[in-house]
């Protein structure tokens, strides 16, 4: 059941505060993790020869996948719970609903845009499995855009776009938490002066 909001001097129920904190924390952690993968992990992976880079990318992928999907679902559920308890006409409600939609949208984004590159990198890992890890000529003759390093670089750029989706959702959730306009029911506040202040 939606509520009209809480006055500035009223403390919202603990469940709402916990859900708000969980939604913001999980989404910002996911955002930072994905940004870190593209800006920190992948540049290190790119220094390795192709056979080793393919294996390292797979490790990064598996680790990211194991936390990415659960965090997006937790974030979405938490902000949706908060929105359920807000006035549907309020800005915080609209921001939380937008965030609740954005967080899990990284799954279809991944399937539509990253999966083709993922599949090529899985094939690279398999085809280079028997190659010496320090073989710098392992991909001699491969088209420049289809080398392991080119595919990993493309994947990192697509991962940044995926991170941006989560980042926008996190901004919406934070904005909703900070926006207090919904809570000041001015129509119930009045000023009295002179004799009428005594009732």
TrEMBL record:
Keyword Transmembrane helix: yes
Locations listed in the record: Membrane
PANTHER family: ANTHRONE OXYGENASE ENCC (PTHR35042), DUF1772-DOMAIN-CONTAINING PROTEIN (PTHR35042:SF1)
Membrane topology: Multi-pass membrane protein
The protein's name in its UniProt record: DUF1772-domain-containing protein
Family, per entry: Belongs to the anthrone oxygenase family.
Record keywords, A-Z: Membrane, Transmembrane, Transmembrane helix
